[in-house]
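Suppose you are handed a protein chain with no further information: no name, no annotation, nothing but its sequence. What can you learn? This example shows the usual starting point.
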Amino acid sequence: MGVRRRPWRDANGAHALRNLVSSQGYIVIVEPDDLIRELLERWLGEAGYGVVLSSKDHDRSMVMPQLVIADISDPGSAGATIGALQAAYSAPILALSARFRRGLGGSSEAAQRLHVGKVLPKPFTREELLAAVREAIEEP
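A reasonable first move is to predict its three-dimensional structure. Written in structure tokens, the prediction is:
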């Protein structure tokens, strides 16, 4: 199916998902690296966010997230990846990448070039992630 819901892992679909809305809302994570994905899931869960893990197939989803966090590993395919995410989810996108330079994290110029709400270079701390999530959700 491509979408895995955590931490509840309930197979009853959208109805069960709506009944388990966390205090902060849902965030979709699109991250190929298992360790980083698990870390994002843990940090966001501890901060009160529900997490939905998505595969690379970005079909129209039943999930209406507040934010999509996506790894942008290849600058050459960034446009296609971001376009697919924008078509699948009507939510701001926080782009993560090891290819972003450290000073670029808060750059609205980089975010505008990529057509995303915010960019965050890897590696990042828990505090940097949560601050970027709050900013991306708060900015229209």
